[in-house]
Write a structure and sequence with these properties.
This protein is an alpha/beta fold. It is 45% helix and 23% strand. The protein has an 8-stranded mixed barrel, surrounded by 6 helices. α13 packs parallel to α15 and α17 packs across α18. The chain is elongated and about 105 Å long. Bound molecules: ligand C2E and magnesium ion (MG) (2 copies). The site of ligand C2E has 25 residues, from β14, α10, β17 and β18.
């Protein structure tokens, strides 16, 4: 237990200056930050290097409460304020709190602030002095692996960057390390981390340094001027060594490693050393994630074009998210007519989703639908599409009573949301019969092989909704599926249509598909007819319906209604 310190009034001012002097002479020997807080006179001193790291105006300042309120993470300030109030009120003689300060760029940094209170001779708190250390991932060295940590990598790279032209950063992660910990316990997990670290150190050369950066991730900094091939060989040496280790442990835990390789050249050299270091970490994290996404147990070599694609996807995902929380702002349905071949009547319209970013960029559904699917956003968006498409159907039925609406569904909706209940409720709310809805599903392998999807498919059919098998002629097309899935309508993809118009073999094939579809009592839509010549050739094959730019491009609802409303210009071509 520390003895309580008391000081006399006469020494007060001198004492604060003395403590600051002592702290500043210790500061260069420490990674932590020393501070002296003059509670009575509201002045705060902290080691100078804290100004480089935290959002501090200078290392000596007054109006301490105000500065701390800006420096401390908003969620933590109340707790800090309360603790200091207790110190000031003499209710506590020490301070020991973990909370977040904001870094220079505004990002939160976890700290542990400890301090001891000195009182004046009247017993009033006068000075609090102590030490602040970072408890986030700024780890200088790691006792489990015996390697240097991220903080050491940071300091070394920052020191070397001004004179460094060439360097390679190989970030290595143990695949599914969480599972090892879960199955075999932390102790065995630590043993593996230590062994992997040892083996990496045996594999590297003299100008290659190994660091442990976060739990199951390591970084090899290459300063030997190695090229891609040499780094590739290094990765494989480490991998083989780890395979040997897995075997020597009698396959108790089977695991692999992935690697992401970044060259210093990939990083913008016009930035400050601190920014270059952050970018190296960001790109190497991307590279490692990419190796894992591509199947793990492999090395991925950073390619700027992949990173741009990743950033673009992230940007679009952000815009889509924003749109969802903004009541679907930016989403719009367009409608394309599906025309009955006999007599060229309007039969239905396919609803096609459109998306415009807040900055006005139109994104193609080919690009944004997969992002909606990956993120699960397709589920709320799908409900919005259905509601709006049915609303359009209701409006069109006012002038065309048999009008039907065709809506694209993603297999993710079928797998992960109660589509049957959603469809039933949406039809009820729109006061429309199930027969006015066509649900379009793309053959994808998922449809044919998933019992869950086949179950929803059957339930929708028995409700009386029509089902269309979309994009026939691409990817997974299989005539047998038509028999198994029993859709009401088969839609032939434009790709297949085009080939049939250009090549006699595909032409014959399409004729046979149409005959076969008709022979089992189903209807057929040919998609993607763009001109009169294509129309004449395709009509000769006797499909039931045609959809394509020849009749109309997909258009906004008012334009569609104007075009097809009996009171409007009635022609369909
Ligand atoms: P899809 O369902 O096969 O839709 C037909 C696509 O062909 C549409 O592209 C349409 O604009 C285009 N198209 C129609 N006629 C012609 C033509 O004569 N020539 C050419 N070159 N193209 C034609 P779009 O609107 O870009 O949609 C692409 C795909 O995105 C759709 O293919 C569908 O798979 C998906 N998609 C669009 N809207 C939705 C939606 O609301 N939900 C879901 N899940 N997917 C959608
Ligand atoms: Mg479709
Ligand atoms: Mg299609």
């Amino acid at each position: 237990m520390m003895k309580e310190l008391t000081i006399g009034m006469d020494d007060d001012k001198l004492l604060f200056d003395r403590y600051c002097e002592i702290a500043s002479s210790f500061a260069p020997c420490m990674n932590d930050y020393l501070y002296v807080y003059n509670l009575a006179e509201d002045i705060y001193y902290i080691s100078e290097k804290a100004v480089d790291r935290f959002l501090l105006p200078t290392n000596i300042f007054s109006n301490v409460g105000e500065v701390l309120s800006k420096l401390t993470h908003p969620d933590d300030f109340d707790v800090l304020e309360e603790d200091i109030a207790q110190v000031m009120a003499g209710k506590k003689d020490s301070h020991n709190l973990e909370y977040r300060w904001l870094g220079r760029e505004g990002s939160p940094i976890w700290i542990n602030c400890k301090g001891n209170v000195l009182k004046d001779k009247n017993g009033a708190p006068y000075i609090m002095m102590g030490c602040i250390n970072e408890i986030g991932n700024k780890q200088k060295a790691d006792n489990i692996s015996g390697l240097l940590g991220e903080s050491a990598l940071h300091d070394n790279v920052i020191r070397l960057l001004p004179t460094l032209n060439d360097a390679m950063f190989l970030r290595i992660g143990i695949d599914d390390f969480k599972i090892i910990n879960e199955r075999h316990g932390m102790e065995y997990g630590n043993f593996i981390l230590r062994e992997v670290a040892n083996r990496m150190q045996h594999c590297v050369g003299p100008l290659q340094q190994v660091y442990r950066i976060v739990s199951d991730e390591f970084m090899i900094l290459d300063l030997s001027g190695a090229d891609y091939e040499e780094m590739h060989r290094l990765y494989h040496r480490i991998r083989s060594s780890i395979d040997e280790m897995v075997a020597s442990e009698h396959y108790k835990a089977i695991y692999t490693i992935s690697g992401g390789l970044v060259e210093l050249r990939d990083v913008d050299s016009s930035q400050s050393e601190y920014d270059r270091y952050s970018e190296i970490m960001k790109l190497s994290e991307f590279a490692l994630t990419e190796a894992k996404l591509r199947g793990k147990n492999q090395l991925y070599y950073f390619r700027p074009e992949d990173y741009s694609a990743f950033l673009r996807k992230r940007y679009i995902r952000g815009c889509l998210r924003k749109s969802l929380s903004d009541n679907f702002q930016g989403f719009e349905l367009h409608f394309q007519p599906i025309i009955m071949t006999s007599g060229e009547f309007l039969f239905a319209a396919e609803s096609l989703l459109r998306f415009t970013t807040p900055s006005g960029e139109h994104i193609s559904p080919i690009e944004f639908i997969p992002i909606l699917e990956d993120s699960g956003m397709i589920i709320p968006v799908g409900k919005w599409i259905l509601r709006n498409a049915l609303e359009m159907c209701r409006r069109c039925r006012e002038f065309s009573p048999d009008f039907m609406i065709s809506v694209n569904f993603s297999y993710i909706q079928l797998l992960k949301s109660p589509v049957y209940e959603d469809v039933r409720r949406a039809l009820e709310e729109a006061d429309l019969p199930p027969s006015c809805l066509i649900v379009e599903l793309t053959e994808s392998g998922h449809l044919e092989n998933s019992p869950a999807i086949q179950n929803v498919w059957q339930k929708l059919r028995s409700l009386g909704v029509n089902i269309a098998l979309d994009d026939f002629g691409t990817g997974y097309s299989n005539l047998l599926n038509i028999g198994n899935l029993k859709p009401n309508i088969v839609k032939i993809d434009r790709g297949f249509t085009i080939k049939a118009l250009q090549n006699s073999y595909e032409y014959e094939l399409l004729i046979h598909v149409i005959k076969m579809v008709h022979s089992i009592g189903l209807n057929l839509v040919i998609e993607g007819i763009e001109n009169r010549m294509e129309l004449a050739q395709i009509t000769a094959m006797n499909p039931d319906y045609i959809q394509g730019y020849y009749y109309s491009k997909p258009c906004p609802k008012d334009e569609f209604i104007l075009k097809y409303h009996p009171a409007g210009p009635r022609t369909i071509a």
